[in-house]
Design brief:
The chain has 239 residues and is of the alpha/beta class. The chain has helices at 40-46, 64-67, 70-77, 88-91, 107-119, 196-202, 226-236; strands spanning 2-4, 7-10, 17-22, 25-29, 54-58, 80-84, 132-134, 147-150, 159-163, 168-172, 176-178, 185-188, 213-216.
């Protein structure tokens, strides 16, 4: 699905993977569900690109629903996979997520998410055998050249990726516009976070930043301005 010139999404908004094209080359931001591998060639074709044009995978963090097909594209296509240094162990399967919050469960949305996970291969995560790492403030040498903003809380190495030239911010699970456990829509803290108070505090690092297109790991793109999104997240957060 085309979201903006050179930016496409795989998935219907429940679990998102993004394709970013720059100069005929592609960066994949998050790999969503393993079954998205089957959707990738078609989405690339809609951009006028092929698997041969994919130069990099960048993960906003290393939870299962973001790793998806990362190891497969690394192994079969020799595409480098990068993640924040504090999530590298989780990406390689050496560590497990800790203290994940399941707050806000409603049975209908939960069952819908479970059905999605079952149908898209998410119950078995394939560790990434080799990852490159980045730190806070890095400008990545990949198509689009995103700048890293470290936002710990959802996971230790959660990060957003800012592309000022595109007026775009990939926020990963720093916040969502759809809560997969409750069905609530609009900007809000994502479920499965390890430290929700810290995740909320980390959002201060985005204050004052401009981004007309905000792309979360779960939910539809937000085009109402980053400042308004942050305000809504803070208003909806538990106090």
């Amino acid at each position: 699905m085309k979201l903006a010139p050179g930016i496409h999404r795989i998935g219907d908004g429940l679990v998102n993977s993004y394709l970013l094209e720059e100069g005929g080359e592609v960066t994949i931001v998050d790999c969503g569900a393993p079954a998205y591998w089957n959707d990738l060639p078609r989405e690339l074709t809609s951009m006028g690109r092929t698997l041969a044009d994919v130069r990099a995978v960048v993960l906003t963090h290393a939870h299962t629903d973001h790793i998806g097909f990362a190891e497969r594209i690394r192994r079969e296509r020799r595409v480098r996979v990068s993640v924040h240094e504090l999530d590298a162990g989780m990406a390689r399967g050496e560590e497990k997520p800790k203290n994940q919050s399941w707050a806000g469960i409603r049975i209908g949305p939960l069952l819908g998410f479970i059905r999605f996970a079952l149908g898209h291969g998410m119950l078995r995560s394939t560790p990434i055998a080799e990852v490159a790492t980045f730190g806070d403030g890095a400008t990545l040498d990949v198509p689009g050249a995103p700048r890293v903003i470290h936002l710990p809380g959802h996971s230790e190495g959660s990060a957003a990726l800012h592309i000022s030239a595109r007026d775009t911010l990939f926020v990963g699970d720093a916040f969502a516009t759809y809560h997969v456990l409750s069905g609530e829509t609009g900007p809000q803290l994502s479920p499965f976070g390890s430290d929700l108070p810290r995740a909320l505090k980390s959002l201060a690092r985005l204050d004052g930043m401009e981004a007309g297109l905000v792309l979360p790991g779960h939910g539809e793109a937000w085009t109402g301005g980053l400042a308004d999104a942050l305000r809504r997240v803070r208003e909806s957060a538990p106090h």
